[in-house]
Amino acid sequence: MNVIEVSELRKSYRAPDGTPAPVLNVPRFNLAHGEQLALHGGSGSGKTTFLNVLAGILLPDSGSVRICGRDISTLRESARDRLRAIHVGYVFQTFNLLQGFTALENVLLAMSFGRGASRPRARELLARVGLADRADYRPRQLSVGQQQRVAIARAVANRPSVILADEPTGNLDRANAAAALALIRELCGECGAALLLVSHDSDVLAAFDRTLRMDELNRMEPVVAGAGR
């Protein structure tokens, strides 16, 4: 059974001159429950946009995106937010932690939008990622690696069906990157979540049994030199 099913997905942005600039043209993509896949490609190839559309943060121009059988593009914003909170965990490249909240509060807040906040579980997760003694620290009081671990704990807090991770090791040194990757994959395995991880790091990609290039997924029309001039 698939946790993500994409069909005929298209997404464009507006260029400065007002013309549409196509970013995504994905005929088909599936991710099975429990599957772990690494997606890679050049800058500007649409990787982050693809994750944001899968998460329902951005809406596609056309096509369908089904998360656990529900087409998120047909849902009202409040319903999309609810579905994302319950079924999708997102590890952002820049972590996106709330600076005015402690590590514990960041995890609890994510839980409050999903299946309900549980202080014991939030503390258990912080301990699981090695931050039991940093629960009351705010992000600015944590190292980059520690902030990433808070973000990972937050992403798995609601026992989601899928984790989307956008360059989760991009701001880390090699040792912390390896540790963060192992932690994400281990926690996904424990809660049965599928994992779709974007990375350009060859060491990260080598750790996955299955990888996919964005240009294999995204059938963009080639740009002809001089076109449109």
Written description of the protein model:
It is built from eight helices and nine strands. It is α/β, with parallel strands linked by helices. The protein has a single domain (2-98, 143-217), classed as 3-Layer(aba) Sandwich (Rossmann fold). A hairpin with a 5-residue loop joins strand 1 (2-14) and strand 2 (20-32). The longest helix is centred in the last third of the chain and has 18 residues, at 174-191. The chain starts with a strand and ends in a 12-residue tail after the last helix.
The helix-and-strand class reads alpha/beta
* Strands side by side in the biggest sheet: 6-7-8-3-9
DSSP strand content: 15-25%
Tell me what the CATH architecture is. Answer: 3-Layer(aba) Sandwich
* Rg of Cα set: 18 Å
**DSSP, total strands:** 9
Distance between the termini: 47 Å
| CATH H-tier superfamily | P-loop containing nucleotide triphosphate hydrolases
The residue ranges in which pLDDT falls below 50 over 5 or more consecutive positions are 222-229
Overall, the morphology is globular
CATH topology group: Rossmann fold
The helix fraction, in percent, is: 25-40%
**Main beta sheet: strand number and arrangement?**
5 strands, parallel
Elements, N to C (H/E):
EEEHEEHEHHHEHEHEH
How many independent structural domains?
Answer: 1
CATH class: Alpha Beta
Mean pLDDT: 91
Number of helices: 8
